[in-house]
């Protein structure tokens, strides 16, 4: 069941507030998130009822965008391990999300939300497992065995969406926050002040992706979402080096990996909305959007997915005409 309708940004914010959220563990750092909390079954029921009042689920792309809704058969789950038993007894494919606070449940704290929370409402016939963790980078997600945890449960026919970059920059020369990658586009290595051998972003991402494809899963690799591109009063976006890194990583993995330029799609959508509207999406800093802003970020990922022709696009309930923007 699906329907298309329009929502104002104010109405969209109200709907976003009704979506049940299970916050992930907090992380130290500028893009860290809140502490852990778990919603109750009664809260989920209440939130599901509220969402049903707006045709079951919501994805928005702008104040004037047409929004698609679908019954909540795609359920966001916080842990790959928690659903392993269910996945093993079901033929329904699973989409695993690996990323930082801009994707994770709870976003960057009060008043913000990760875009991965809203992705399930654009997909049908799949389960969505949001394993994004606030404060992580390609390096720390690797070293904390989070990629391995996903690889342990992923199966042929699943997808893994990988998006990092907000916490991967910085210097290793004086301190080591355990997140900063070695600078470089290839197989360079660095030695941190702690004596650790640190790999580059492409090395971490490529290795992680190959863990998944070895199990028969397809991988979608995306650069980070943009920091507020309109915070100076005019909208401007320059792709970070992680965009090229993500692209080269997907190419290195081969035909089982797809590059999606999520950052450019979001930047284009925000530029179309203008500084006044976009500034309101960032209540705390220039990195973590509000629920309303993150619904647009999620919608732009869906648009990029449709443009990419990745097989996951067959599970999308939106159409390109229902989301503001064009393919890049």
Question: What do you see in this structure?
Answer:
The chain has about 325 residues and is an alpha/beta fold. It has one domain (about 1-320): Rossmann fold. The protein is built from ten helices and ten strands.
Judging by the overall fold, what is the CATH architecture?
3-Layer(aba) Sandwich
Radius of gyration: 18 Å
User: Which segments are poorly predicted (pLDDT under 50) over 5 or more consecutive residues?
Assistant: 1-89
Distance between the termini: 30 Å
* Percent helix: 25-40%
Question: Biggest sheet, in brief?
Answer: 6 strands, parallel
Quickly name the level 1 CATH class: Alpha Beta
Q: Which structural class should the secondary elements be placed in?
A: alpha/beta
What is the typical, i.e. mean, pLDDT? 81
């Amino acid at each position: 069941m699906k329907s298309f309708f329009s929502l104002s940004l104010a109405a969209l914010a109200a709907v976003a507030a009704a979506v049940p959220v299970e916050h992930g563990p907090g992380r130290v750092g500028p893009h860290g998130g809140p502490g852990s909390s778990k919603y109750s079954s009664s809260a989920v029921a209440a939130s599901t009822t509220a969402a049903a009042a707006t045709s079951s689920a919501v994805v928005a792309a702008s104040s004037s965008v047409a929004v698609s809704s679908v019954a909540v058969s795609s359920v966001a789950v916080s842990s790959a391990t928690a659903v392993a038993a269910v996945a093993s007894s079901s033929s329904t494919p699973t989409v695993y999300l690996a990323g930082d606070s801009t994707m994770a449940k709870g976003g960057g704290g009060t008043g913000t939300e990760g875009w991965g929370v809203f992705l399930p409402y654009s997909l049908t016939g799949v389960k969505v497992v949001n394993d994004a963790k606030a404060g992580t980078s390609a390096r720390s997600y690797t070293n904390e065995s989070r990629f391995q945890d996903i690889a342990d449960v992923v199966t042929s026919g699943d997808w893994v969406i990988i998006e990092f970059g907000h916490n991967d920059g910085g210097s290793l020369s004086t301190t080591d926050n355990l997140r900063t990658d070695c600078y470089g586009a290839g197989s360079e290595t660095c030695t941190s002040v702690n004596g650790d051998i640190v790999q580059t972003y492409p090395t971490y991402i490529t290795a992680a992706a190959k863990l998944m494809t070895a199990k028969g899963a397809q991988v979608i690799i995306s650069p980070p979402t943009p920091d507020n591109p309109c915070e100076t009063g005019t909208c401007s976006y320059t792709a970070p080096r992680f965009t090229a890194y993500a692209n080269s990583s997907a190419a290195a993995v081969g035909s089982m990996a797809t590059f999606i330029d999520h950052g450019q799609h979001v930047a284009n959508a925000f530029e179309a909305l203008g500084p006044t509207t976009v500034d309101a999406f960032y209540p705390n800093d220039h990195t973590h959007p509000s629920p309303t802003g993150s619904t647009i970020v999620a919608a732009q990922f869906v648009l990029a997915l449709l443009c990419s022709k990745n097989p996951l696009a067959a599970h999308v309930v939106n159409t390109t005409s229902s989301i503001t923007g064009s393919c890049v």
